[in-house]
Predict the structure.
Amino acid sequence: MTDRAYDIVLFGATGFTGRLTAEYLAAHAPAGLRWALAGRDGDRLRAARDRLGVPVDVVTADAGDERALRELAGSARLVATTVGPYIRYGGPLVAACAAAGTDYVDLTGEPEFLDRVYVEHHATAARTGARLVHACGFDSIPPDLGALFTVQQLPEGEPIRMRGYISAGGRPSGGTFNTVLLNFGRFRAAAAAHAARRRVEPRVTGRRVRGVSGRPHRQPALGLYALPMSSIDPLIVVSSARALDRYGPDFTYGHFIGVRNPITAAAFAAGAGGAFALAQLGPTRRALGRLLPPGAGPSEEQRARGWFRMRFVAESGDRRVLTEMAGGDPGYGETAKMLAESALCLTHDELPALAGQLTTAVAMGDALRARLEKAGMTFRVIT
């Protein structure tokens, strides 16, 4: 793809997370990187370029303009997109990248979008050589790469039982908040999309890989009260385990939110349950969304106080390990960093010769972990 105009095109560069990603690339891009900012509003893109103060091109394209998106995909080795909700706005772009053999990374936290892309575009991407890598932010790099790191601490060829516990402090953006509400309101459509994927996706043979919902419990090894977390994260971890034999002959994963006291756990469960119920009706879902509208996000000072820890407890035979991946502001500072480093990893590092819909652990694995450690995130064995 050396004949293409750009190594990386950042689509959605004027949104909240898009701006942070552009700033990270401007500060950390290797010499000679050919990249561009893309979106629907040329004036805002040029203003964003001027604020960056670096030589970067501007490409105008609307998320619904299929012809413009085909031209955009054909001009780039990789497209990174922050334009969500992806179930509404992401389909034409990922289709264009799959057809053009262009690598693609996004920040989706939407299981329905993941399943629809597999059904509609995985085979095309596998044929053209495109790598379609979703969830390249706080959803779901910490659980995915953290689980891989944990597996690597255990004996090969043995069954593994793993539980992941996410703890974080930070303020969400309006875009993320509204995407969560949309996911709540589309759970039936998501179930149908997942069933469609199961009908066409090859089954794992000779091994067993399972995600388990688990129950609320106290995890004394970490000093946490844990609540089962239904999100895209465990789906990504299980997808990686299905693809990689290193996860052993029998791999089980459960995913939880971890908090320090039971009152916080009860309040979180009640709040999530109430939001889920209200999101089932359009008027109440829209009313909730207005509490934190898209485009709003935490200040630089608030982001500076953010943090996350993704910890794992895993057993294999008579061996038990506790591990941790940790970083700063989860939703925005670190998410922008993770998306940018994923794009740079796919365009600059020696990686497995794979194509189609892939997870970060499968597509990039240790190469991406090394980048994130160099960027300030930590992976460590606790015990």
